[in-house]
Amino acid sequence: MGIQVCPKCGASNRVDETAAQLRQPVCGKCGAKLSEAIFDKPQYVTDETFGNEVLEASNSVPVLVDCWADWCSPCRAIAPMLDQLAAESGGRYKIAKLNIDENRQVPAQFSIRSIPTLLIFKNGELVDSIVGVVPKQTIAARLASI
Known about the structure:
Elements: E1 2-5, E2 12-15, H1 17-22, E3 43-44, H2 50-55, E4 63-68, H3 73-88, E5 94-99, H4 105-109, E6 117-122, E7 125-131, H5 136-144
Parallel strand pairs: 3-5, 4-5
Antiparallel strand pairs: 1-2, 4-6, 6-7
C-alpha cells in the first residue's frame, strides 16, 4: 500500500497498488483523481509500510528509497531529480521516500549516518546505496544496472 498526495487538495491517501491497476484511485477527501500510474511519483513509506512497499514488493522491479529530512538542504536539492526519475520510470523501477525524522527504525536497521542516502532494493535485498547529492544520470545508471 502506497501513499499518494492529492494534486488538488494535498491530502495523503493510501493507495493499494494492485487495486490501482484495476480502477482509478480517487482522493478520499475531495474526490479528485489521483495519479494514473502508481510509479510516476515517489511514494512515501514509513517504518510500518517499509516491509510491504519495499522488502516484500510483489514484482521484481528495483525500489530506490530516498532517506531524507525536511531540514536537509541537499535532500531538497535532490528531490526534483527523483521526481523526474519517477516520472520517467515507465514502471521499470519505483521510487520511495522515507522521512528519517518521523521514522527511526528503518534508518537504524540500514545504518543511515548521512542524508540524503539512496538505498536500492531488488527482490527485497539491498543491492546498492548512494550517499549525498549526485547527478540524475548517475542515479539512473545505477538503477539501470540493477
